[in-house]
Design goal:
alpha/beta; Rossmann fold; six-stranded mixed beta sheet; two-stranded antiparallel sheet; 10 strands
């Protein structure tokens, strides 16, 4: 037993070498999240045993067959075939408004950390993960693939994403959809500070291709609560426009407009048969994962 534990520790250490910091954080979050689940509980899809193959870096170490190692002195992985194999694309709105932060974490920073954790979880379950990020144009696109080298590339790309410009949802989501195989899953990270009709037009390209769409609206607590008082000069992060406001007097009007906007976003998601989640940047990535995947599990069961 001690020898088995030592070998697992050695393999894990080898795989950690050279990982981006965001990747180390993502793995820590996901493994901690999974270890906290009840025994036997799994967020994923049913799998059936399908034989063995030789171990390669990036494989889930818990699927190592130690009996096969004892016979051959070589590492083998227990292969499984999933009833549903997924191709998941993570799309990040990197427009200027996503750079806003009333606290330590910006909306984009939160989205990046959550996307990194999801990328690890997806790869860990032997599915394929892709990445796209955009504002006024499509800044980067990695088609879905599996294995550790691709996951590292996803993490390195996430570390380089910066907020700026206005979001063009129709053009950029159309470009992403055109680079993907028919069917799959799209997870869109956005603050939703746009005309919902533009978001609807962009996501229609995925609906027509029978994609499963998850819309994650990332919100700063200050946007939710509007804690400002007195005179403020608000600046539009995307256009640079400035507007002097009596924040105290404008609060009720702002909250009313926000509620109406959120209702339109929910309606947009409903029309597209998309899962819709609102996540706040003062929430931990682990808690966000739990909320997202718990609800996803309930929807799949229903």
């Amino acid at each position: 037993m001690r020898e088995t534990s030592r070998r697992l520790t050695s393999l894990a250490a080898q795989e950690s070498e050279g990982l981006p910091k965001i990747g180390l954080r993502a793995r820590h979050v996901v493994e901690g999240f999974l270890s906290g689940l009840h025994r036997g509980r799994r967020f994923g899809w049913n799998m059936e045993f399908a034989g063995h193959r030789e171990y390669v870096p990036g494989d889930d170490l818990r699927t190592l067959d130690w009996k096969a190692f004892a016979r051959t002195d070589r590492y083998f992985i227990k292969r499984f075939e999933e009833e549903t194999s997924l191709s998941v694309t993570l799309a990040l709105d990197a427009s200027g408004s996503m750079g806003y932060a009333s606290g330590q974490t910006s909306k984009l920073g939160f989205a990046v950390e959550l996307a990194a954790a999801l990328a690890y979880l997806i790869t860990r379950q032997k599915d394929q993960v892709g990445l796209a990020w955009f504002s006024s144009q499509l800044h980067g696109f990695l088609p879905p693939a599996g294995a550790l080298p691709h996951l590292r590339l996803v993490w390195e790309s996430l570390e380089a994403v910066q907020a700026g410009g206005e979001a063009d949802y129709p053009a950029n989501l159309r470009a992403v959809a055109g680079g993907l195989p028919r069917r799959g899953m799209l997870i869109l990270f956005t603050d939703g500070l746009t005309d919902p009709e533009l978001l609807h037009r962009g996501l229609l390209y995925f609906q027509s291709r029978r994609f499963d769409v998850i819309l994650l609206r990332i919100v700063d607590p200050a946007e939710r609560d509007f804690p400002f008082r007195g005179e403020y000069l608000f600046t539009d992060a995307e256009t640079g426009g400035r507007l002097p406001v009596d924040a105290t007097g404008a609060r009720a009007q702002y909250l009313s407009a926000l509620a109406a906007h959120e209702a339109r976003l929910e309606e947009t998601a409903y029309e597209l048969a998309a899962d819709y989640h609102v996540l706040y940047t003062d929430t931990s990535v682990s808690e966000a994962l739990f909320r997202l995947l718990s609800r996803r599990r309930r929807v799949r069961r229903g």
